[in-house]
């Protein structure tokens, strides 16, 4: 069996599934109507991003301390109140609310990153190595969460659109989509899959096992890698300089 080519194995698995389903091919979960994914993961990630913003030094905040995190918390409560347990189909107003929430987090973290880079270049930031590394790590981790939220919200029209199977062409190609025999029949991408994609893109500065297919996905991943690379290089370089 070890000598059988992988495509032959895939065909055998497909035939077995056809026999089990009575001769009719069942579409994978990510291509058909399914239940909405549980909300706990994305809610925890947003709360984590809000908590990280509260730890930023005040000179790096866009508005007076606590204003943006407070607004983000209010928007999150509205989304959770509308769909407390699962991400279900929502109207255009709720989708706009979700996009506005992610946009606010992105704006706040982008401003903090820009101010940190500006301060490092002009020598006004980074008087202590430990504080600088903590601030840089804060911005880097928030950046991972922010782009995970964008990937999750935009891939194939968003979680509600994916749940209804409205769009058949994926923006991100996961391994389970290429090799359905390696995943359970009910597998479909959820927020934690996009969080993993965002983390690996921020550490490797390139796609790993998830391939971006659409142009917007490629540009968004390129932007994330750029922000991550600039933040890491400048913060580490300055911290090493301080220690020496």
Summed up, what is this model?
The protein is built from 9 helices and 2 strands; from the N terminus they run H-H-H-H-H-H-E-H-H-E-H.
Word description of this protein:
- 30% of the residues are buried.
- This protein has nine helices and two strands; from the N terminus they run ααααααβααβα.
- 64% of the residues lie in helices and 2% in strands.
- The protein starts with 5 loop residues before the first helix and ends with a helix.
- The chain is mainly α.
- It has one domain.
The secondary structure category is mainly alpha
How many individual helices?
Answer: 9
**Biggest sheet: strands side by side, in what order?**
1-2
Kindly report the average pLDDT value.
83
Order of helices and strands: HHHHHHEHHEH
In whole angstroms, the N-to-C terminal distance is 59 Å
- Sheet with the most strands, sense and barrel status: 2 strands, antiparallel
Helix content: 55-70%
Shape: globular
Gyration radius from CA atoms, angstroms: 21 Å
Give the total of domains: 1
The percent range for strand residues is under 5%
Low-confidence stretches: 1-5
**What's the total count of β strands?**
2
Tell me the layout of helices and strands.
Blueprint: H1 6-20, H2 40-54, H3 67-82, H4 92-122, H5 129-154, H6 159-164, E1 172-173, H7 175-178, H8 191-204, E2 211-212, H9 215-243
Antiparallel strand pairs: 1-2
Helix pairs in contact: 2-3, 2-5, 3-4, 4-5, 4-9, 5-8, 5-9, 8-9
Protein name: DUF1345 domain-containing protein
Organism: Streptomyces triticiradicis
Keywords: Membrane, Transmembrane, Transmembrane helix
